[in-house]
Amino acid sequence: MDAVGPSPLAQALLHRVNDDARRQAVSLHAPGGSLRLDHGQLWDWVEQLTRQFQQRGLCAGDRLAWLGLNHPLQLAALMACARLGAIFLPLNFRLAAAELQQVMDDATPAWLVHDAGHAEVAAVLRGPNRLSQDELMASPCAQELVCPPTDGDTPVLLVYTSGTTGRPRGAVHTQGALLANARASEWAHGFTSGDVVLSTLPLFHVGGLCIQTLPALLAGVPVILHPRFEPKAWLDEVAGGAPTLSLLVPATMRAVIEHRAWSGVSLGRLRGIMTGSSTVPLHYLQAFHARGVPVGQVYGSTETGPVSVVLRLRDAIDRGGETGWPHPGARLRLLDGEGHQVPAGETGEVCLQADNLMWGYWSPEGRAGDGLRDGWFHTGDLGCQAPDGCLRIVGRAKDMIISGGENIYPAEIENLLLALPGVLECAVVGVPDERWGETPVAAIVAQPDSGLSAEAVMDHLQTRIARFKQPRRVVFVETLPKSALGKVQKARLQSELACSSRGT
How far is it, in rounded angstroms, from Cα 441 to Cα 438? Predict the structure, then answer.
């Protein structure tokens, strides 16, 4: 093996190779077949890709876009970019071609690598040179490798936000930030030598890539990778007994819980799962807790690495529904609208400072854009802290409803609605009202043939929340408007409901 050069991110992986090259690094379990790579074999891929990229003219600062389902080659490509000082750009394969083109026009990558399943989409995208995964690995490259100088401040990852309120923006992360995030994740999970991580969320987002997958790889914890999330495949893998840790978001938690195999399948050696979201319906947590599997939480965003505030597994059952504490390298403040820290127990905007925050938003000039204020990231989320410092997220600042001078947090109502049998999905937004300023309206996707009525919904809420918080209308819809990452587009829903005369 060649010497790695100065890339700190690649050096962290090479340390694992030198420590035990034959230890399992990552395996892919896919319907069409499986593959298994130990650390030595994965590093061979990194070597091959580094030479291939350099031979094709990829230089420091260039962007390399990647379009495809989860695959170990993505992890090798990230490391190859790190060695060359280039920036890895994972693309959201759920986006339409026009949406992908917006990202391409903004990031202007030099190359686009795609898998076979996305060849047609890749072919219509304008701008970069294109290369298939098969072409990339078809023939060895013997070119002498010359790695440019890089350090912890060198940008290496460009990830675009989901764009729930407008055009997506690219968050730039440095090699040092990814390493700091990996340390935060290791603290969050308490990785052990016996752990195995099951990774099924998409690697095009920091949730799938940076909460467990990359940190586990750098910590020497084997990773089982699925091309994409499928509830039956997830349950079968867990029942097989290898995974001890996994990551699910609320939507995938629901898919697992509602699968017909859920109640009878063994959960194997699973010692816990993490979820990454601002708020998680309590009955999702309770379903896992009832089976002895604690559900921890990683709070953060594309801009924060994302590991920022963590409810660790040891606290998960006793503090279910809360968000947790900042990792040891993070600082947390709750600020009011004037930028002043709020008193203990009061609600304020969550602001974070840590080494794993983004460098800034991408700008075509290659410099950091806005996004940080004096080193702090203002999340837009509202939270309050218990006397012991435990954070609880109550909602988004922009989603908060002010009705008759009272603050109403939609997440509180949504959690109650999701506990009602017959409710598949829901969202609560404020609509203009002449008397109260705003009033809450609940949009509900009901289970087919549930017979759920608006009266039943209001009866369910009647004794559970104060009268001023109760929705003034309940509207049943077939679907909720969502971004490509599955986040409800509340601004769009709010506009639709404001123009609608349906409901009760």
Answer: 9
475-492 in b/e form (b: 16+ CB < 10 A) is bbbeebbbbbbebbbbeb
The shares of helix, strand and coil residues in the chain, as percent rounded to the nearest 5, are 30, 25, 40
Query: Rounded to the nearest 5 degrees, what angle is found at the Cα of 200, between the Cα atoms of 43 and 248?
Result: 130
Q: Give the pLDDT score at 164.
A: 47
What residues does CATH 3.40.50.12780 cover in the chain? 8-18+37-322
Helix H or strand E segment including 311 = strand 309-311
CATH number of 8-18+37-322: 3.40.50.12780
Rounded to the nearest integer, the mean pLDDT of the chain is 91
Torsion of CA 351, 466, 390, 282, to 10 degrees: -100
Within the chain, how many helices (H) and strands (E) appear? Answer: 16, 25
Q: pTM for this one? A: 0.86
Question: What is the DSSP annotation of 411-429?
Answer: HHHHHHHHTSTTEEEEEEE
Q: Which amino acid is at 393?
A: I
Answer yes or no: is pLDDT of 374 > 90: no
Can you tell me the distance from the alpha carbon of 444 to that of 442, in angstroms, rounded to the nearest whole number?
6
Q: What is the CATH number of domain 400-498?
A: 3.30.300.30
Q: What band does 369 get if pLDDT is binned at 50, 70 and 90?
A: low
**Distance spanning both ends of the chain, measured CA to CA:** 69
